[in-house]
Amino acid sequence: MLTDASRRTDFPQLSEMVYLNSAAEGLPPRAVRDALLQYYEDKCLGMDGRDKHARQWDAAKAVTAEFYGLSPDDVSICSCSSEAYNLAAQALHLRDGDEVVINDLDFPAGATPWLQPSCPATVRVWRHRAGALHVSDLVPLLTPRTRFVTTSLVSFFNGFMIPLPAVIAAVRKNSPALLSVDVTQALGRIPLDLRDVDLIVSSTHKWILASHGGGLVGVNPQRRDEWVVPAGGWFNLQDAFGAERFTKAESKPGAAGFTVGMPNYPAVYAIRAALDYIHSIGVAAIDAVARPLTLRCLDEVSKLPVDLLTPPDHAAMAGILAFRHPDADGLQRQLRANNIHVMSHAGRLRVAIHGYNTGADVTTFLTHLKAALR
């Protein structure tokens, strides 16, 4: 991933394009392809394949736990981050008078469960200023009635990275709330320290380079009993097939309760392979290569006639930068005509730089962006 030779071997598709869109879809390495083929071979064994599926499940949980700083017992895998948050909403048992804090840089999956008419809680919005979320603006929103605070570590919208230790300190000091952090736009790209986070959630098809169909859930063991998901199913239940199965249902506490049915084993195989691949390289090594490219790109884009959405503070940067332009779609089309992939949405262009990107990729992008702007 970090050398020309490994890029050619692991990502042959990069020989034909400059790919700067990992925040939307990560490119799977060949190891993920091989894992999906292995799933097919194991599935062809019928019931005899289930033992192999189970071993992949355990391995995927173990490597996820290592990235999250948890034990495998405190990690599980559901279908996507949206499912994880909807199950979390059930576990909270919110009532009238309870309060939830969301923010306006977050992805809809983490914010919208609390905005549904069926949610009785009052929602408070932590609003950004100039593209940054300031802890000083969070504190007044926290009260003894705050039950839940949810935020992404890195914003999908503009790449802003919250100062997590300061956020944790503010939540603990000013409320009894549980804190959830979505690391979808960070996992596999930047080193993580998630100590004292109550619920960790991530998608699987972006920076970790796995497939669709996965949601990685981690629960702080000290708060395990506060995350009991009251969902029907079987994989999530203490005794799904016992003598009392038609008289009561008891959910497993903590992360185990977030997988309510048969795991999506194809995704599990892909997750295990992708995280093993990222682990073999090292997130710190990826960040050491990709971060200077991201900062260089940010500095150069800030000089162009665009409306920069990403705050210029380098300490608040991960792997994403974004800017607005009246003809964002036209810029994207011109870039795509030169096999340069970025995201365009609602007048916003978003650039995401991963470990398989190079200085030449950034130069090519900037050269063609400047030409398109002219």
Structural overview:
The protein has 374 residues and is an alpha/beta fold. It has two domains: 4-20 and 282-373, Aspartate Aminotransferase, domain 1, CATH 3.90.1150.10; 33-279, Type I PLP-dependent aspartate aminotransferase-like (Major domain) (Aspartate Aminotransferase, domain 2, 3-Layer(aba) Sandwich). It is built from eleven helices and 13 strands. It has helices spanning 4-10, 30-43, 50-68, 81-92, 108-111, 135-138, 164-174, 265-281, 283-301, 328-337, 359-373, and strands at residues 18-19, 75-78, 99-103, 122-126, 146-152, 178-182, 199-203, 215-219, 307-308, 320-324, 340-341, 343-345, 348-352. Strand 3 (99-103), helix 5 and strand 4 (122-126) form a beta-alpha-beta unit. Helix 2 runs antiparallel to helix 8 (265-281), helix 3 packs across helix 8 and helix 10 (328-337) crosses helix 11 (359-373). The mean pLDDT is 97.
Instruction: Tell me the CATH topology of the largest domain.
Output: Aspartate Aminotransferase, domain 2
- The CATH architecture assignment of the largest domain turns out to be 3-Layer(aba) Sandwich
Q: What is the count of helical runs?
A: 11
* Helix content estimate: 25-40%
CATH first level of the largest domain: which class? Alpha Beta
Identify the quaternary structure here.
single chain
Beta-strand portion reads 5-15%
Q: Overall 3D geometry?
A: globular
What is the average per-residue confidence, as pLDDT, rounded to a whole number?
A: 97
Question: What is the domain total for the residues?
Answer: 2
CATH superfamily of the largest domain: Type I PLP-dependent aspartate aminotransferase-like (Major domain)
How many strands, what sense, and barrel or not for the largest sheet?
A: 7 strands, mixed
Listing every helix as H and every strand as E from the N terminus to the C terminus, the arrangement reads: HEHHEHEHEHEHEEEHHEEHEEEH
Query: What value does the Rg take, in angstroms?
Result: 21 Å
N- and C-termini, Cα separation:
34 Å
Poorly predicted spans: none
Instruction: Identify the strand order in the major beta sheet.
Output: 2-8-7-6-5-3-4
Q: Number of DSSP strands? A: 13
The helix-and-strand class reads alpha/beta
